[in-house]
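Recall that a protein's primary structure is simply its ordered list of amino acids. Everything else, from secondary elements to tertiary packing, is in principle encoded there. The following example makes that idea concrete.
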Amino acid sequence: MAGKASKTPVNIARASTGDAGAPPVLLSGGNPQIAKGYGDAPVQAYIAAMPGWKSEVGRRLDALVTSTVPNVYKAVKWNSPLYGIEGDGWFLGIHCFAKYIKLAFFRGASLSPIPPGTSKTLQTRYVHIHEGDELDEAQLADWVKHASQLPGERM
């Protein structure tokens, strides 16, 4: 719940974002390989490296999360941007695939309505965004706000 103290704090150490002069490598499916890092800079590097239409959608998603949860904490881990509440874990992850962007709501089964994509993890639910899809920003903002108020995932 919002305002509830976490028993296990999230590690807030800062990590290098890598060589700023070298273009990021795109892994299979076009997912940018960005060095692990905490804060806005590595997330912005990831978004800038997203190929084609995905970069603009990534900017829109990041702006939506930041405006919906002004105190959001950001990081890139496992070549995916993560969004959370400092000290309370992560509530959302983004990952590029060849034909879509996957939003992972780590406590998505607790959202209403439940996001449509299922996972091997009981609580996680996904939203897939394909090129040309109309984003229901009101629904996404509602999920983001609600997800940010739930206990986060420890990673």
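Residues 53-68 form the longest helix (16 residues). The first strand starts at residue 25 and ends at 26.
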